[in-house]
Amino acid sequence: MTLNHSANNGQSRLDAPLRTPSRALSRTPLRAPSHTGPQDISRSIRYTMLALGFVCTVLGIVGIILPVMPGTVFLLIAAWAFSRSSERLHLWLYHHPRFGRTIRDWQQYRAIPMRGKVLAITMMSASFTYVTISYSPNWLVPTLVAATLIPVAIWIATRPTRPYGAPETSPR
Questions:
Q1: pTM for the full model?
Q2: b/e map of 52-76 (b: 16 or more CB within 10 Å)?
Q3: What number is the average pLDDT over the span 14-18?
Q4: 75 with 60: CB under 8 angstroms?
Q5: Are the CB atoms for 101 and 107 separated by under 8 Å?
Q6: Average per-residue pLDDT for the chain
Q7: Exposed, middle or buried, 9 (CB in 10 Å: 0-12/13-18/19+)?
Q8: d(CA 88, CA 90)
Q9: Are 166 and 109 in contact (CB under 8 A)?
Q10: What is the mean pLDDT of residues 38-58?
Q11: d(C-alpha 111, C-alpha 113), whole Å
Q12: Phi, psi (5° rounding) for residue 123?
């Protein structure tokens, strides 16, 4: 993907407004919530953030397909990286029909869906059980794994879910 800075006052094609035939997306705002815009950072940092966003998007999609790795965390990192490097890609991810709701819920409520909480804690428990059985003569490895997974599980369990009856953060 090439960048064209000459014809549009230093704005790259990655920051061009999102064009899509979808009626729902045509009513979306031009901006999603972000802390700093793509123009506020140097070019090298911007390209680094773009690369991080692409890598995390791929890892997030893989994580959604494979149950052994988290997907949402990588998509949240990708949304953060794109918010600082490409408004167009940030909007694409923010308003995506599959991934957008989770990102919007996290940004508005700092909420994790109940299904995600249950799945994450279940997979952590299964991982701990596997490590405990695999390293049964050695107590150090299961202890270190437990010392890592227990605080993470507590943190996940104490995050709110989207309040019942709260409207979805509308992409419109």
A1: 0.62
A2: bbbebbebbbebbeeeeebbbebbb
A3: 51
A4: yes
A5: no
A6: 77
A7: exposed
A8: 5
A9: yes
A10: 86
A11: 6
A12: -65, -35
